[in-house]
Amino acid sequence: MKGQLRDKFTEDNDGQRNLRAEIAVSTGHCPCPLEEISNSSVISHKILGDCCHILAEGGRDEPCPEQVQTDVSPECLCAVFMDYNCVPILEGTRDDGIVISTYLPNRDVLKDIVSDLREVADDVSLRRLSVPTDRETSDVRSVNLSVLTEHEQHTLTVAIESGYYGSPRQISFDELASKLEVSKSSLSQRLSSAESKLLLDLLER
Length: 205
Hints:
Blueprint: H1 2-12, E1 19-27, E2 42-48, E3 51-56, E4 66-71, H2 77-83, E5 89-94, E6 97-104, H3 107-120, E7 121-130, H4 150-161, H5 173-180, H6 184-203
Antiparallel strand pairs: 1-6, 1-7, 2-3, 3-4, 5-6
Helix pairs in contact: 4-6
């Protein structure tokens, strides 16, 4: 079935990518080796055949790069992107998982990828959706905050005001949890739920 998905995708698309999506994923059944590596130390991350190859800088006492190779199983995050002929790009690591960006042909493929990721990951949230241009400008639209619960609205508001979504980030995940006086698991759940609701609401339009 997955091979059929890949074949259909290739036949129906000419390779043009009209969207860039940034997805935060908490790994589930198949822990991702990228979780153990700081994104600043990753030199290269490529999928060759059915193998995931990661080349990372060595530690302080090891000047030589280190290469990690793992088989891509059906439960791996990269396998989901491969099924839709999309390239996963590591954007960063966080306390509860990793952040991956990818370029897609349309919103329907994005919804399918998010749906499939949720089958193999503990938690998936869509953090950013933009239209690739020379200046990488965002596809800015109004959002319907009524889809959020009162707790989610409050949490998201405090996160934004505190600079959690800033670049660079002005408050850490742990600090934000302390500021809101909630557990890290509760904060992760609220943010993921709010982010997904808002961005998926945009996809429905």
